[in-house]
Specification:
The chain is 39% helix and 13% strand. The protein is an alpha+beta fold. α4 crosses α15, α4 (145-161) packs parallel to α16 and α7 (244-268) packs antiparallel against α8 (319-334). The structure holds adenosine monophosphate and magnesium ion.
Length: 535
Amino acid sequence: MIDLTFTNRFTETLPADPREDLHRRQVEGACFSRVHPVQAAAPALIAWSDEMFERLGLVSPGDLDDEAREQLARVLAGNDLLDGSDPYAMCYGGHQFGNWAGQLGDGRAIALGEVETPAGDHLTLQLKGAGPTPYSRTADGMAVLRSSVREFLCSEAMFHLGVPTTRALSLVLTGDKVVRDMLYDGNPAPEPGAVVCRVSPAFIRFGSFEIHAARGDIDTLKTLADHTIANHFGHLPNADAPTSETYIAWFAEVAERTAEMIVGWMRVGFVHGVMNTDNMSILGETIDFGPYGWVDDFDPTWTPNTTDAAHRRYRYGNQPQIAYWNLAKLGNAVAALVDDVQPLQAAMDRYVEAYTEKGRAMSLAKLGLSVGRDVEEADELIHELIRVLQLAETDYTIFYRRLADMPAGGQGLSDDELIEPIRDAYYTPDSLSDEAKEAMALWLRRYFDATADDALSDADRKAAMDAVNPKYVLRNYMAQLAIDASEAGDHSVIAELLDVLRNPYAEQPEAERWAEKRPDWARTRVGCSMLSCSS
Ligand code: AMP
Ligand code: MG
């Protein structure tokens, strides 16, 4: 029934930890440890991605009878292993909040193995929350429903927004309770346990390389780098027998892909929340959806992660710089494989250029403006908007959709008249300061002058803008509503949100309520504006 062709290139070509017990330990000279998921008490499939089932060549759970669906739930909880599966946890290290943290590894993620899809792609299936591994340190290897709903929905939402990301196949309730101190304030409580099955061509992280470099284990570092290049960067020169040039080209491509991913985050208003190097995918995919959040009112200093509240290292506006810092750490690790480190520095510089160019193009696209214009003028218009958006609480998502609706040619209107169409992007439209109003009106006038250069019709400008400015994003409070319902036994909100988020750029008249501003109750509610790493 669940017919998957396992290829398992990771476990077949890379050095394994010789031990197969769960004793927490330093695993040296190896890229992974073989480990089996625990038995969940009563697996129940509560959400899934039809697209991912189709991609894997599997029948949608919606078309299965009860018995087949139960069987599937057992597999997706890790209770039953499919023929050919070779489950393992990966060894990696990482820099956490700016400091080298040593070995981390998959503490609560167990890959079932790599499969080949009907289209010939290789995808790894990984269960998050299916039990402890040698990398679990003091923790239990489990995951709770709330964080699993968040990971499931956000990975699919990111994909449909067109931002590179790991995918989610399924969400299963385990039937077990997991104790968590949600706010780290000495109030542990049992919560429903859950498992998400994540899918990606590879879950290899920056930290996967750093750990071997930090230990001076250049052999394992090279073996992993060669595996990664041969299997995931096969288009590079000499991918099957990498030379110093190959490693440099590889690093440069990782930098380029990372720049693209960050541009995507900035475009849609996503804040990852924990950009440690162990949470940076070597494929340039968004990975590890923990205390992430979406900016509601535009504020570059905002981070949802209360664990990071003091320094706000991973705030929205700092993400491009942090990616650069993380790439430098990867570069240090890769340096051991190249003859000359200067080209690695050049690739770092290229990240800055790539981010600047792609970031500018993205900002112009959000405004429906062509990229060919004067760079200085473009940057000034963009920077002024960033300033103006912060003069009053302005919803980032709604602002751009309203701007797209505005006809050009309002130059003769008063400030109040000009601002009218974007009024409902403001959180408190009736108490706008004169400064905020005047600055916005001035900016709008400059903006419409700039649109005149492109001579697009209003309709064409709107179509171009609506294709890059989502109407529907997974606002923090929306995920929380899905969690509240799901914890009370109603999983339909997860499915409803998944459905809406499948077409984030389209008008969906029946889903208007999910395009609204963050409601007031969500301003201070835990899970909506404040999240900890507890999950
Ligand atoms: P994160 O910040 O979620 O990316 O996790 C950092 C490290 O902690 C990784 O090595 C995780 O595998 C590990 N970890 C997080 N939560 C758990 C848990 N409940 N059980 C075991 N390990 C965990
Ligand atoms: Mg992680």
